[in-house]
Amino acid sequence: MPKGLFIVIEGIDGTGKSTQARRLGEWFTDQGREVVVSREPTDGPWGTKLRESASTGRLLPEEELQCFLNDRHQHVEELIAPSLAAGKVVILDRYYFSSMAYQGARGFDPLEIRRRNEEFAPLPDLLLILDLDVDTAHSRIGVRGDTTNEFEQRENLTRCREIFLSLKDEWFVRVIDSNGTLDDVAARIREVVTAR
Ligand code: TYD
């Protein structure tokens, strides 16, 4: 059975995941590979509900976690698994490691979240964690708000970053220093992908 290549890009907000996912996709396309670049939350019904909740008010913790699981279930069944089975390169901007980090920062046990996801979600061949200190990431997304909010957000992202970095010694994980220009980061990513 043909088997594709599954690469996931993770990191806190402001690390440049979506740009790097797109650029890595273009790089594979240039080499004649069939590529699917996708993201979570998806643009499906569950993902749309989650994105809307960002402006209308966050869902309750358990409901939010369940929504991410439902969204991912559908993503795996309808896009990820069939694309990999067809031998394509699948590149994701966020996956269940974001649930470990963000819902973990909201109080759930990250390892329990991981277990629930790995019941149905395939492990990537390569997980790239784009890493940046919270101040730099924050200034890149241009966060402006009242100071309490900003403080809370920093605390939250600091916890998310810690959870992402807790994965750094796993065999399928590479941490990418995301300081510097988009070209610098893209070059680091290509180097790691080539080595794998
Ligand atoms: P993001 O990629 O930042 O979307 P956009 O580029 O549209 O802003 O993702 C939206 C938010 O969803 C982000 O703050 C992280 C959060 N998220 C979770 O809390 N859990 C998850 O499992 C995923 C995939 C994302």
Task: Report the sheet-strand fraction.
Answer: 5-15%
Distance between the termini: 21 Å
Structural shape: globular
Number of extended strands = 5
Please tell me the CATH architecture by its name: 3-Layer(aba) Sandwich
CATH fold-type name: Rossmann fold
Low-confidence stretches: none
The CATH superfamily bears the name P-loop containing nucleotide triphosphate hydrolases
What characterizes the major β-sheet? 5 strands, parallel
Major sheet: arrangement of strands: 2-3-1-4-5
Mean residue pLDDT? 94
Which structural class is indicated by helix and strand composition?
A: alpha/beta
So what's the CATH class?
Alpha Beta
Give a description of the structure.
- The structure is a single chain.
- The chain contains eight helices and five strands.
- With 196 residues, it is an alpha/beta fold.
- Bound molecules: thymidine-5'-diphosphate (TYD).
- Thymidine-5'-diphosphate binds next to helix 4.
Task: Quickly list its features.
Rossmann fold; single chain; five-stranded parallel β-sheet; 8 helices; 5 strands; alpha/beta; 196 residues; binds thymidine-5'-diphosphate
Q: What is the fold's blueprint, element by element?
A:
Layout: E1 5-10, H1 17-30, E2 35-39, H2 45-56, H3 61-85, E3 89-93, H4 96-105, H5 110-118, E4 126-131, H6 134-141, H7 147-165, E5 173-177, H8 182-195
Parallel strand pairs: 1-3, 1-4, 2-3, 4-5
Helix pairs in contact: 1-8, 2-3, 4-5, 4-7
The structure holds thymidine-5'-diphosphate (TYD).
Thymidine-5'-diphosphate is lined by residues 13, 40-41, 68, 94, 98-99, 102-103.
